[in-house]
Amino acid sequence: MTTVKIINKSKHALPNYETSQSAGMDLRANISEPITLNSLERAIVPTGLFIELTDGYEAQIRPRSGLAAKKGITLLNSPGTIDADYRGEIGVILVNLSKDPFVIEDGERIAQMVIAKYEQIQWQPVDTLSDTERGTGGFGSTGVK
């Protein structure tokens, strides 16, 4: 298990895994008063959390499926990436895709965070790429079933 340093300036407990096999931890809004998102409005919602990731790791900020399915609330830059060298507060860019206003309350679970390993690559410029069965087939080229 990897250890991540965290500063919690919020009024809420640290994010945690809700089940033993959860990949993500819920992030909570840390706000002094409710925020109303009208239809198609967006807002950066603070969490009060600051993290120090180990080199080679990122934090991915993803929508919560329940908010997306039931209320039409999602993230604009999904998944949002927090790089290992970022030391600022984690903010979540929420958007309301429903027709109804949505009120964000302090402490509400607004997104989930997944910590993931990554590798940086080095480009190798070439003139051709290897052939595959799919080739250059793009969107929908592999069929519908």
TrEMBL record:
- Name assigned to this protein: Deoxyuridine 5'-triphosphate nucleotidohydrolase
> Which species is this UniProt entry from?
Myroides marinus
Ordered alphabetically, the record's keywords are: Hydrolase, Magnesium, Metal-binding, Nucleotide metabolism
The top EC class is: hydrolase
Functional pathway: Pyrimidine metabolism; dUMP biosynthesis; dUMP from dCTP (dUTP route): step 2/2
Q: Which Pfam family, an example, fits this chain? A: dUTPase
Residue ranges constituting the dUTPase-like domain according to the UniProt record: 13-143
UniProt keyword annotation of Acetylation present:
no
Question: Its catalytic activity?
Answer: dUTP + H2O = dUMP + diphosphate + H(+)
Family from the record? Belongs to the dUTPase family.
Where substrate binds, per the record, is at: 64-66, 77, 81-83
Q: What is its EC number?
A: 3.6.1.23
Q: Which Gene3D superfamilies match?
A: 2.70.40.10
